Amino acid sequence: MKQRANLFRVFNIFGYLLLGVLLMVVLAACKKNEGTLESQSARGNVIKIGMALPLTGVEASYGRDSLQGAQLAVEELNTNGGVLGRHLQLVVKDNQSKAGETSIVIRELINRQHVSALVGEGASGRSLEAAPIAQKNGIPLISSGSTNVKVTKIGNYIFRMCFIDSFQGKVMAKFAHSIGIQNIAIILDSSKDYSIGLAQSFSKDFMALGGRIVVQQSYTGNDKDFSAQLTAVKAAHPEAVFLPSYYTEASAIISQARQIGLEVPFMGGDGWDSEEFLKMGGKAMEGSYFSDHFSPDNQAPVVRNFVEGYRKKYGIPPSALAALAYDSIRLLADTIQRIRTVDPIQVRDALAATTNFPAVTGTITFDENRNPQKPAIIIKVRNGKFTFFKSMEL
Ligand code: PHE
Question: Could you write out the three-class secondary structure of 288-316?
Answer without folding.
Answer: CEEEECCCCCCCCHHHHHHHHHHHHHHCC
